[in-house]
Amino acid sequence: MSIQINNDNSGFIAKGMTNSELDKVVEIAGYDYDSVQDIFYSTMNPWQRKIGYCRLFDEAAAPLGMIIDCEPIHFEYNNKKWMIGLWKGQYDLVSGGEIGVYTEAFDLKIPGFFTGTFYNCASDSDLLQMSFVLKKKGKVLFRREGEHWWLTGFKLGEFSEPSDLTMDININLKNRLMRDAFIAGLYNAGYSKADLTINGNSVSFLYATPHSEQPVTRTVATDRIIQRKNELFCAKYQEITQGLDNLQDRVAAIEEQAPELYQKIIKMGKAKPLFGIYETVLLVFLVAVATYLASRVLSEDN
Q: Which residues form the DUF4474 domain (predicted)?
């Protein structure tokens, strides 16, 4: 595996690397690697961009080992429903944070399974200039900035409680109308005027304790159990990789000494587990539609 350096001095895992499993992290999971900050981050056009977002994904996170705080900010602008989502916490073997931009919502109702709003990922014309600094107990873990629809960062082998993490967020909206609509969404979510710093069309705020209702799958008892497992895995990762200063050597050591952790690296973040959830939602939705249409036909025949 080779590490290349971009012109802006941030490294990433090259697609031509010899480690075929880590190649899948880039090609399938949709991540690149920043060797300067030692973090993984999402690319502009991963396969996730074709999938979108619904609340069910957040509900599925905890059972899949991801204990993360969720903060959806809903608003309307330019005759479209928007949702800017904020996430931070422990994604199994990594600590991380995310800002996601989603639009063109439609209501999805699957009787007995799911009722909620489904969003598409923002198109190129709806990308926003965003930045955040992820801190753990006041200490900076990493920084992310760019025009994006899904600005993320994930630090491998770092264990954190969601309450230990904060995000200093700045989002530059397209114009005053959009800025005011987003601010109204923040107010509706529970933020106050004192929480916000407004500079032109830019809005800055601290994301610490979420104001929104958290997924029902997160309870004190289950969080404790899952987090102790996550903490154990991170401790084992740190023990094995101690003294190794590059990603190639660390991953090679994990592959040799702890194959179970190696598999978690390959499946890190939200990618593979939530893809299965998406397939399930799509299948159930299609079955529900087919059942509904069949019942209509039978009803009309009668």
A: 22-262
